[in-house]
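Subject: Protein entry, chain in single-letter code together with its C-alpha cells

Area: Proteins and the way their chains fold up in space.

Attached in line: The record itself begins immediately under this heading.
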Amino acid sequence: MQTTGSNSTTRGGDGDSERGRLVRLLAERSARRGQFTLASGRTSTLYIDARLTTMSPDGLALIGPIALATIDEAGWTADAVGGLTLGADPVSYAIAYASALAGRPLRAFTVRKEPKVHGTGKLIEGPFRAGDRVVVVEDVITTGGSALRAVDAVRSAGGVVVGVLAVVDREEGGREAIENAGIQVRALAHAAELVGQIPA
C-alpha cells in the first residue's frame, strides 16, 4: 500500500487482482494516444473515455466492489454516493449495487449540470437526503472542476461530503485542487498506469 499525502491507493504489483484487471480494462478499452482537446479545454496526448469501461458489464462488475473496498480503506462512513452527470452516474450505481450485495447499502444519486426548469427544480436527483454523509464520485479527474461542482451541490442541499472517489486520476492537478478545498481524494487507477498498458 502506497500512501501519498491524503491519497492512499494500491499502485503497481497488482498481478491478477481485481484492481489490476480494472487497470488493464481501462487501458485497453478507454485510453487512447493522439492529440486531443479535453472537456477542460486543455490539450493532451492522452484521452481517457472511462465510460467505455464504466458502462460495460465487466467494468461495472469490477468497479463496484473495488470502489466499495476503497471507501472502507479510506475510513469514510457514508450514506450515499453520487456526482455530476453523466460520467459519475454508472460509477455510483455500481457502488450502490455492490453495497447492497455486501449488506450495507449506500444510496446512489446524480447531480444535474443545471436545475430542472419544471417540477421541483431540483439539482440533485435520486434518494439523496439532507444530512447524508456523501462520497462524491467521478469517472476521470482532470482539473477537479466537475467534482467540486458536485461537492457544492451536495453541501447546498444539506449533505456532508466525506471524500471524493474517482475511477481514474489523470494526475494533472485535479486531485490537488480538491485536496486544497479540504477534501480527501482516492482513485482506483492513475493515468501513468494506463499509459504503460495501452495496446500498440
Q: What stands out?
A: Strands lie at 2-4, 7-9, 31-37, 43-48, 80-84, 107-111, 124-125, 133-141, 160-169, 185-190. Residues 1-13 have pLDDT under 50 and may be disordered. The first strand starts at residue 2 and ends at 4. Residues 19 and 66 are 7 Å apart (CA to CA).
